[in-house]
Amino acid sequence: MTHIPLVAGIITTAATTEEILLHPKDEVHTEFLIMFVAGITLFFGGVALAVFISFRAVAIERLATIASIAVLTVVGSSLDGVTLLFIVDGLILVGLIAEHRRVENMQPVASEPTPTHARSKK
Fold first, then answer.
1. Does the pTM of the predicted model rise above 0.85?
2. Which positions ≥6 away from 77 have C-beta within 8 Å?
3. What's the start-to-end Cα distance of the chain, in Å?
4. Eight-class DSSP state of 19
5. What proportion of the chain, given as a percentage, has pLDDT over 90?
6. DSSP 20-84
């Protein structure tokens, strides 16, 4: 179920990144900004959805990364393409580091021990 947005996000982001890098010193046109944010949203949103479906946990750092990139593309719409990509890479890196630290510091949930030799009574 989550594979479709992941693949669509990868394809959309790759296509817009290629267009941005073909004209690195130019401002990124609005339609490519929209496609770029849509691709990142599809990918990171797909991962966040997969995490929620699998673990019932909210990947808040991924959602915050999506929001920060969306705000960046609105506020920094006059940036040239390479600068925009470097800032986006930095935001993604910060989000992934924050997520890694949160996950590494999580305490395991205590669950009832399962008996290894359960006997049924007749």
1. no
2. 27, 28, 30, 33
3. 44
4. H
5. 81
6. HHHSTTSBPPHHHHHHHHHHHHHHHHHHHHHHHHHHS---HHHHHHHHHHHHHHHHTTTSBHHHH
